Fold this sequence. Notes:
The chain is an all-alpha fold. Helix content is 73%, strand content 0%. Helix 1 (2-28) packs across helix 2 (35-42) and helix 9 packs antiparallel against helix 10. The longest helix has 27 residues, at 2-28. The chain is elongated and about 55 Å long.
Amino acid sequence: MASSLREKNKQRTRVAIVRAALELYIERGYDQTTVSMIAERAGVSPRTVSTYFPMKADIAVGPLETIFSRLQTCIDSRGRGQDTLDALESWMQGEAEIGDETGQNLVRRAMAANPLLQVVERERMIGAEKLIAESLIEEHRLSPGDIGPHLLASAALAMTFELWGHKHVKEPHLDSPHISDRVEFIPYAIAMLRSAEQSMITNLAYSPEARTS
Length: 213
């Protein structure tokens, strides 16, 4: 019970820091925002900010890090008979249930106003694409050089963020949908990915490399 309370308090502190940083990145710009400013607005010490986020740029992608960490957990903990796309669907459904923890409009506006943060965000997304692709490669016993799993992983993330309404716009509409508002489209997205996965398997089976191996 005490451990659970500590985790909730840590999460509240983390969210407060992220929201404070995003607001300041929008108001002042990334370069002009200091850790001390973030700490003051979040109501914590600068040391606490640095403990949660060693690098200032990490704060902006903090929500993404948390989301992708849960994706890793879903892939690693999938049960017998569950494949990568089952794990992906569980992840999407789980994120919809959690809801908008940080405020996606803040994230979108902060990213749009600060190109450097877009670079950091893209790096994290490449890591998530790699995670999905490696799971598909292992599942289908493919070569790391096969392009199919990487294309499918890229499509999976693109679909996810389309459901999330995650786009870089300076003045997003306040009612921009979150994935929790589009739960009914998740099975449709997974069905499209399964069709693409089947096409990938078929094409690999009839590729020149497969015929000569």
